[in-house]
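Progress report, Aim 2. The chain analyzed during this reporting quarter is listed below.
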Amino acid sequence: MDPQKQAYREEASELIADMEDALVELEQAPDDRDLIDRIFRDMHTIKGSGAMFGFCNIATFTHGIETVYDLIREGRLKVSGELVSLTLAACDQIKLL
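Predicted structure tokens for the chain:
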């Protein structure tokens, strides 16, 4: 495998682990702006780097989730337990992709 693509996979794995930790915390503190921003940044990095290295399926998939967290940052959506569960499931899907 291309070393750059392998580096992306390693970085994405670390970002997903960070996101999963933040999501668990967010479930207990749904208004914590730092956690929301952290999840958004992790998704944004996975998306952008994925597109740059040719992982278009990952970039497309994460774009939708990133958009949801942007709406939360704008105050147009609220964090719920269901959203946290769906985002954790999305993390699992990204790992598969």
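The radius of gyration is 13 Å. Helices lie at 3-28, 33-52, 56-73, 81-96. These observations will guide the mutagenesis work planned for the next reporting period.
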